[in-house]
């Protein structure tokens, strides 16, 4: 590294005031809002060689004592640091930034911002996003959608799985509008009976009501509630975005059902076993059935699958309906969403040990089974099964297969109504080669513009960039950024 580069990285200071304590995530414990703009020289010297050699400095207080050399301006392309950097566990940066899924330099950049914020009277909390935000506004110019807001979300230690899903849901406009309306009618409930729905509605309201068009919002209240509600999401471990989405939608439904029951003067009826998971709930056949409450979450995301089984002995067809919030599809190398959906609805023969018990024959019989979509949802969420258990390895493996997902999708051979058409508006992307580490980002289409959301970072991208997240044509390819959850919105309005 050139001498002038090192010189830029060393901050000269005359004051000997102490640096404030730093919380997890690099945030300072701001004991004095009028902190001195200068920091002790002894704590601001920089040791660059460990980072240059790819080794972690011996000091555990990275954010305190080791301020890295940083570029003069952020890169113009979507920030995609090396996987090994983004997948560092939170413990690896103890005392510094706990920003899960970011690069080492990215985490230290956050720490530097916080230190500079305290030293300068906390005037520039988000220097990076301020620059990126102004770039985004400049890029959109007069085309910036009226009333729209593009805000990044602060990461609280491996919460990128949460942030990426929240961005996709925020730009699911019908869902967002229902949440905003709910909050307007129930915002006082949060003072006495806080729940996940109130916290989410509050977060979306904060974003939509910002005076600035771009910036960063802290989802701290929502994240804390998620961790309180479900121990699975506590700590700083890497979590699965699809599992979080399922958890969130089911929790919202349960809260709405309980509120509806309370309003009618009857106890809540939801139980964990009744929650909608991946197409495994609410049978509509076989006996007397009480119609479940249809909430606005159902209106947006719920579809109905029909599982048809035809006995090959008596030709009797048995149909069983199941509701779903998302479709989980098996994937193959060099395939497409259309082919995956075709395989999903292909006919399967049940024989040998898998024979079907026919009620008419009163015995086990060979049969043919087929799954199809009876009622497609307004918002079709498709989960690609990129993580598969490999028996020979004794562990899960990420499938980096190239799976093409089109901008416009027709549900041919999958639904009764072959004219169902959908448009892609969001993609949650998993970055990394492993199953227990990595990073999540999201791609969102808003008012005919595609945006890239990486926690606090937001920028505009070309539509052609979305194709880079299809996956790898070859197993050994270096690309590890793969589409994981796809969000399609119905175009016909008849769902």
Automatic annotation (TrEMBL):
Pfam families noted in UniProt: UCH
GO BP, sorted A to Z: protein deubiquitination; proteolysis
Coiled coil (UniProt feature): none
E.C. designation(s): 3.4.19.12
Segments forming domain USP: 151-491
SUPFAM superfamilies given in the database record: Cysteine proteinases
Classification via Gene3D superfamilies: Cysteine proteinases (3.90.70.10)
Keywords: Hydrolase, Lipoprotein, Myristate, Nucleus, Protease, Thiol protease, Ubl conjugation pathway
Family annotation (PROSITE patterns): USP_1 (PS00972), USP_2 (PS00973), USP_3 (PS50235)
Segments of this protein annotated with the region Disordered: 1-36, 52-101
Residue ranges, compositional bias (Low complexity): 1-13
Role played: Recognizes and hydrolyzes the peptide bond at the C-terminal Gly of ubiquitin. Involved in the processing of poly-ubiquitin precursors as well as that of ubiquitinated proteins. Required for the correct development of pollen.
Protein's name in the database: Ubiquitin carboxyl-terminal hydrolase
Organism: Phoenix dactylifera (Date palm)
Primary gene name: LOC103710532
